[in-house]
Amino acid sequence: MFVVTVPVSLAAFAMARRVLAQDAPGVRRTVDWAGTATVTGAVIALVHGAVDAVDHAWTSPRVGGLFAVSSVLMATFIAIERRAADPLVPVELFRSRMLRTGTAVALLGGASRVPTFVLVALYFQQVLAVSPERAGFAMVPTSLTGFAVSLTVLPRVLGVIGPLRSMVLGLVVLAAGHLWLANVQSGSAYVVAVLPGLLLVTTGVALSFTPTTMVLASAVPARHTGLASGLAGASMQVGGALGTAAFVVIGISSGRRVEGALDAAGFSAAFTAAAVVALLTAALGATLVWPRP
Questions:
Q1: 15 burial type by CB count under 10 A (0-12 exposed, 13-18 middle, 19+ buried)
Q2: What is the pLDDT, as a whole number, of residue 167?
Q3: What angle do helix axes 140-148 and 195-218 make, rounded to 10 degrees?
Q4: Per-residue pLDDT, 292
Q5: What angle do CA 114, 137, 122 make, to 5 degrees?
């Protein structure tokens, strides 16, 4: 699976010189090594703390200690960025409400999007007793649907309602898919019970993923669009790790774990929690659609 990606990456590398424009000459930038080290350490500690919460209590010294380390490193990172001559993330950019709220939406949106496909893959194998190979084939329609929606539907939606409303709409559709999957009855057929929920989830992801990055990019000056894109990607990835850990913990707490597997009740609770997060994220994004006076 990982080897397959190598020729694709090499092809992209070879095409880059032909496709991408050359950088315009400008001021030479310095590397913010201290900021890079502290923010990376903060993210690693945060994600490990959340992942360890699956096997340890949230209040355990192990999990609490990792969260404390993450908090200290993040505070150190902010202090470094305030004083750095060429900061990795200029903190003054966060005076923009659009950027602050958009980053939170990216984080929570990642927490509601990424775990879905992990949970579904486990659901196929642990509840429906489907082999890994058949589970992989069962996920193919989601990839095809996401590709089709991104190429055909999303551009039209963006042209009609813009990225902010598209982002909110996508999160609502995503929540609908979560709720569908949360209410699948045991023994139901894949085509009529599981697949519609998957297609809703995929459509919601396609309608909200790219618009979130567009919202963040619009919140900063043009010279910082690369930073905005990086913030969006990093927030979504960290949110995905935190959401996966949190929803698995909810599933374990709500269902019956047998030999490391969740039962149908546990998956239902996990998908319901994901729907709640998606709806709350949509509500947060809606505050940008209808700004305060």
A1: exposed
A2: 96
A3: 40
A4: 60
A5: 45
